[in-house]
Amino acid sequence: MDLAVVVVYEILYTIAFLALISAGLAVVFGMMRVVNLAHGEFILLGGYTAIVAHNNLGINLFVSMLVIAPVVVAVFGVVIERLIVRFLYGRLINTMLATWGLSLAMIGSFSLIFGTTTTSVKAPIGSISVGAFNISGYNIFIIASAIGVIALIFAILRFTRAGLVARGAMQNADMATAFGYDASRIYMATFAAGAALAGLAGGILAPLVGIGPNAGSLYIAKAFITVISGGASVVSGLITSSGFFGFVTQIVTFLTNSVIGELGLLVAAIILLRLLPTGISGRFFKNRL
Amino acid sequence: MTSRQLVLSVVIAAIVMFVLPVFFDVLNLTTYAAYALLALSLGFVWGYGGILCFGQTAFYGLGAYVYAMTAINLGEAWGGFFLAILIPAIFAAILGAMMFYGRLSDVYLAVVTLVVTLLLFRFMNTTAGPEYVIGEARMGGYNGIPGFPTLHTPGNPDANIYDEELYYFTFIILFVCYLLTRWLLGSPFGRVLVGLRENEQRIELLGYDVRARKTAAFAFGGGLAGLAGCLYANAAEIVTPELFSLGLAAEAIIWVIVGGTGTLIGPMIGAAVLGHLKFVLGLQSIKQVFGKENPLEATLVFGMILVLFVLFLPRGVVPSIQGWFGRSLVGRFKSGSGMRRRTRSERARNGA
């Protein structure tokens, strides 16, 4: 019984982890058809920001993670959007290449600034015991954050005027312009929102994983797979595909070990894309959020 | 290619081959030639087949590993040499068939190829234990496989081909592969392939089997990349999982972008020049200029190169030079770039 609780808890955690690291990319890809391959480094930037704000500036850890990290990365995202991404809208492959270059440049900069070693910060929540097992209490916070993030994205897109305008502009930029909205600024804001979500993920995960200059490739691979397999619908794609991959990874991990679990995720992704070439939501939740 | 062009390209290649060692270290040149072959394979698949493969290094690494393991098991090199072409080609054919018959396109194709590379990277890193062994060859995990027999005169495993001989051998292989690729592109198969890049639907409606052709082109590219990996393994005398890393995958893309898609000579030049740039950036003296001991600043430079090229010179250096000089001087080294230019401007007009 205790084991079952732990297994379910671990599965939920893996799903939450995937949803969290993919949310920013899902918004940017789902709304704007832009694949930001520097997403992993955006997450790292969030992590570094949270750690520096807490360790060096002495700011409360939760404030650093939940406020400062997303804000800093969002500002950075605006700069990148203005300097690079906005010239490449509609050219999917070129955006991928340019942001891949950005990703390499950021890896190089991180190692120049912070060194090649891994930095970290202590988790603010200790462990909880379930029967004979000890589980990490911080993981509950991560699961809650993932639910919060998804709810937030859904609420903004579905119920606010800004979300409505953003969705409209993505469907027909000329029409949005004709109604007096500045499409270019909407794109900028959406990209910034995606960056903020990446920063938030980095901040929240900073106490859990070591932040080093090369760690980004780990996130981008998983986030990329989750988002592409999820398809174009932001919320439903994100939920279904992180649910699917989290489940597969964790089950395989329990049956074998964590490395095979990761391989399981990659193999599952290849098979899934072969069967559903436009992603899960392209097949089942077409034209929904 | 006319016979005059053939003679001319042989003469130019021979001059380049004999002049380069005067200025550069032959071991470095051998490595650059292997890079150039990898770039040629990607330049063919991407620039002519229109298949943007983010993980061309998967076949490259696979070729290197196949060569190393076969050479250890056989105790001689040539079996491994041919398997290093064959197995990556078969692997590419299977992967390609899966993708093209599944009608994956663009971004999904990029994901799958990238994921396969990552898969191999992760897998090879975990094979440190003694249970991962094929015949007598241990896969060695993150340490890789050192000390396998290198290329030698056929029939005489003791007469190793190394240093200058290996450089000339690698360069000649590169040149032969270049000629082979050009011949393929001039053949009916190649013509249809380029047509397919320009308008897949039209080619399909003309009655050609697009999926089979893309798969065949992909397999050919995979074989070239595998051969490149084999040559690299002979130059480096060690194979490691780094061959499958995201960093190298990105570098291959950068070589092709900088050199120019839609040409064969461009990616090869791009690979050699940027390969040398990376070598120079890794030198101690440069590090002291930057003031810090740091192995990664090459990454920063390469990343910036990629961003700048995508933004300002997406066609790459060689096609741009061709554009400036017209068809007179360098024009004979390429085909089809005029067509490419038109489609690009079409795309720009449609805002797509």
Structure description:
The complex is a heterodimer of chains A (289) and B (352). Chain A has one domain. The radius of gyration of chain A is 19 Å and the shape is globular. In chain A, 49% of the residues are buried. In chain A, β1 (127-130) and β2 (133-136) form a beta hairpin. In chain A, strands 1-2 form a two-stranded antiparallel ribbon. With 289 residues, chain A is mainly alpha-helical. Chain A has helices at residues 2-32, 39-56, 61-83, 92-114, 138-159, 161-171, 173-178, 183-205, 216-230, 234-255, 258-275, 279-284; strands at 127-130, 133-136. In chain B, the strands form 2 sheets. Chain B has a two-stranded antiparallel ribbon. Chain B has a two-stranded antiparallel ribbon with strand order 3-4. Chain B has 15 helices and 4 strands. Chain B starts with a helix and ends with a helix. Chain B has a single domain, classed as ABC transporter involved in vitamin B12 uptake, BtuC (Orthogonal Bundle). Chain B is globular. Classes of the chains: A mainly alpha (289), B mainly alpha (352). Chains A and B meet through α4, α9 and α11 of A and α5, α10 and α13 of B.
Topology:
The complex is a heterodimer of chains A (289) and B (352).
Chain A: H1 2-32, H2 39-56, H3 61-83, H4 92-114, E1 127-130, E2 133-136, H5 138-159, H6 161-171, H7 173-178, H8 183-205, H9 216-230, H10 234-255, H11 258-275, H12 279-284
Antiparallel strand pairs in A: 1-2
Helix pairs in contact in A: 1-5, 1-8, 1-9, 1-10, 2-3, 2-4, 2-8, 2-9, 3-8, 5-6, 6-8, 9-10, 9-11, 10-11
Chain B: H1 3-23, H2 26-48, H3 56-74, H4 78-101, H5 106-125, E1 133-134, E2 137-138, E3 145-146, H6 163-186, H7 188-198, H8 200-205, H9 210-236, E4 238-239, H10 246-259, H11 265-281, H12 284-290, H13 297-312, H14 317-325, H15 337-350
Antiparallel strand pairs in B: 1-2, 3-4
Helix pairs in contact in B: 2-6, 2-9, 2-10, 2-11, 3-4, 3-9, 4-9, 6-7, 6-9, 7-9, 10-11, 10-13
By secondary-structure content and strand pairing, the structural class of chain A works out as mainly alpha
CATH topology of chain B: ABC transporter involved in vitamin B12 uptake, BtuC
- Largest inter-chain interface? A-B, 42 and 51 residues
What is the helix/strand order of chain A? HHHHEEHHHHHHHH
Unreliable residue stretches of chain A: none
Q: Could you give a short account of the major beta sheet of chain A?
A: 2 strands, antiparallel
Mean pLDDT of chain B: 85
General shape of chain B: globular
Query: What is the domain total for the residues of chain A?
Result: 1
In whole angstroms, the N-to-C terminal distance of chain A is: 37 Å
Spans of chain B of 5+ residues with little confidence (pLDDT < 50)? Answer: 333-352
Into which percent range does the helicity of residues of chain A fall?
A: over 70%
Question: What is the percent of helical residues of chain B?
Answer: over 70%
Strand line-up in the sheet with most strands of chain A: 1-2
- Give the strand content of chain A: under 5%
Could you tell me the number of beta strands of chain B? 4
**Proportion of beta-strand residues of chain B:** under 5%
Please give the largest β-sheet of chain B. Answer: 2 strands, antiparallel
